[in-house]
Write a structure and sequence with these properties.
CATH architecture: Alpha-Beta Barrel
Number of strands: 10
Largest sheet: 8 strands, parallel, barrel
Number of domains: 1
Strand order of the largest sheet: 3-4-5-6-7-8-9-10
Distance between the termini: 37 Å
Oligomer: single chain
Structural class: alpha/beta
Radius of gyration: 18 Å
Order of helices and strands: EEEHEHEHEHEHEHEHHEHH
CATH superfamily: NADP-dependent oxidoreductase domain
Strand content: 5-15%
CATH class: Alpha Beta
Helix content: 25-40%
Shape: globular
Length: 319
């Protein structure tokens, strides 16, 4: 898989990244460590070398699973992890990074990201200047190679960029969830900031495998995903029907079509999660699907069946 430059850094990433929220187990149902390890290894074998995780995914469990899967090929992969909103004071950032380094069994992190802005989930407000000061120090020490942010608005991104170089933004972004296009993404394009889209398959909705009336276990985070509720879900089913013929033309799945559309957007890369090895392999194959300008426009219009009816709230879940 041909790599791309992360922002203006020296880090090279694959346009499809392996997402490992589910490997942390918390807020997911039926996840087995052995499956997670095999799945991450399958992603690597299929050409995905950039792995995204976070300290909060199972309180370090996801990071430890990533290490178990890939420590023997550390020199051929890129690790992206995140510090949570409750650890944004200077000393907390340093300590969190050290914990992540230990969990990942490495002496450097390729991309270290602020997971949520200060104050999210009722966390203490910490000035962004303080957090960025710690991140800049970590970068100077060689513990991290690039700084990124996740779930930041355009205004928050601009503020953070006053205190250091931001090389990536991680927003929720997919054919069915596109609020970032109206807010932060234009700023990213202007300033050479890579977009690492999470939930690029709308948490599985874009795979087409969830039929009308599907009920999630109440402990599954998708039970609160707005796209799986009422009219949003019905409109998604209509859109998927229209996408199927395009996928068939390319001899690919709906999921691969959705990923191919996303990585064809300006500076956009897709973080695709997977529970099983065959899913990770299939996600990697999406990089081979080449869409014409006309097809991209057609897919764009179909996505609007869903997105035209959503409000401006960028958070995908009713938490």
């Amino acid at each position: 898989m041909e790599k791309r430059t992360l922002g203006t850094s020296e880090v090279q990433i694959t346009p499809i990244l392996m997402g490992t929220w589910q490997a942390g187990k918390r807020m997911w149902v039926g996840i087995e460590d052995a499956d997670s390890i095999k799945t991450i290894q399958a992603a690597f074998s299929a050409g995905i070398t950039t792995i995204d995780t976070a300290e909060v995914y199972g309180e370090g469990h996801s990071e430890r699973i990533v290490a178990e899967a890939l420590s023997n090929v550390r020199d051929r992969v890129e690790y992206a992890t995140k510090v949570f909103a409750s650890h944004l004071k200077y000393e907390q950032v340093i300590a969190a990074c050290d914990r992540s380094l230990t969990n990942l069994k490495t002496d450097y992190i390729d991309l270290y990201q602020i997971h949520w802005p200060s104050g999210a989930f009722n966390t203490e407000i910490v000035p962004i200047a303080e957090t960025m000061s710690a991140l800049n120090w970590l970068k100077e020490q060689g513990k991290i190679r690039a700084i990124g942010v996740s779930n930041f608005s355009r205004a928050q991104l601009i503020e953070a960029a006053k205190y250091g170089r931001i090389d990536s933004l991680q927003p929720p972004y997919s054919l069915f969830w596109r609020q970032a296009e109206q807010d932060a993404i234009p700023y990213c394009i202007e300033n050479h900031i890579s977009i690492l889209a999470y939930s690029p398959l709308a948490q599985g909705l874009l795979t087409g495998k969830f039929a009308q009336g599907h009920q999630f276990d109440p402990t599954d985070n998708r039970a609160r995903n707005k796209l799986f509720q009422g009219e949003n879900f019905e409109r998604a089913q209509q859109a998927l029907l229209k996408l199927r013929p395009i996928a068939e033309r390319h001899h690919c799945t709906l999921a691969q079509l959705a990923l191919a559309w996303l990585i064809a957007q300006p500076q956009a890369n897709a973080i695709a999660g997977a529970r099983y090895p065959e899913q990770a392999t299939a996600n990697a194959q999406a990089a081979e699907v080449k869409l014409s300008a006309a097809e991209l426009a057609e897919i764009d219009a179909i996505g609007c069946i869903v997105t035209d009816h959503l409000d401006d709230n960028p958070i995908m879940w009713n938490w």
